[in-house]
From TrEMBL:
<protein>
    <submittedName>
        <fullName>MarR family transcriptional regulator</fullName>
    </submittedName>
</protein>
<dbReference type="InterPro" id="IPR000835">
    <property type="entry name" value="HTH_MarR-typ"/>
</dbReference>
<keyword id="KW-0238">DNA-binding</keyword>
<dbReference type="GO" id="GO:0003677">
    <property type="term" value="F:DNA binding"/>
</dbReference>
<dbReference type="InterPro" id="IPR036388">
    <property type="entry name" value="WH-like_DNA-bd_sf"/>
</dbReference>
<dbReference type="InterPro" id="IPR039422">
    <property type="entry name" value="MarR/SlyA-like"/>
</dbReference>
<dbReference type="GO" id="GO:0006950">
    <property type="term" value="P:response to stress"/>
</dbReference>
<dbReference type="Pfam" id="PF01047">
    <property type="entry name" value="MarR"/>
</dbReference>
<feature type="domain" description="HTH marR-type">
    <location>
        <begin position="14"/>
        <end position="146"/>
    </location>
</feature>
<dbReference type="GO" id="GO:0003700">
    <property type="term" value="F:DNA-binding transcription factor activity"/>
</dbReference>
<dbReference type="InterPro" id="IPR036390">
    <property type="entry name" value="WH_DNA-bd_sf"/>
</dbReference>
Amino acid sequence: MTNSKEIIGELQVVAEIEKDLRYISSIIKQKGREILSQYTITPPQFIALQWLFEYGDMTIGDLSNKMYLACSTTTDLVDRMEKNQLVERVKDENDRRVVRIHMLKEGERIIEEVINKRQNYLQSVLTDFSEQEVLLLKDNLAKLHQEMKPE
């Protein structure tokens, strides 16, 4: 019987997994952009809204770090989002020098709709999978994600 370390050691299997993940990532990104094209936000604005939706109010510095952007780039991004009433700048109650980016109702509405459409797309792709296959895929992706997280 072959163990997982032997299988992983076979470069061909690893190459196929990497290729599949790359293709899947590309398809998901393209489908996401198709969905986003129905809204008045850009992909970077969507990413910023995702971080705010998941983690709540953030400073420009925190958001810049999450998005791997320069603070000046993130400031411009937030300026445009504020102009479109997706977010607002709010002074921190404990330290007035700190300004946090807060998502407004319109930002929440857009992020929820886009995520819902993306989930519906994925659900349609998975219709030919058995319940067991879906659960196994979920578990394996969660395990892979956990292994890839920085410490």
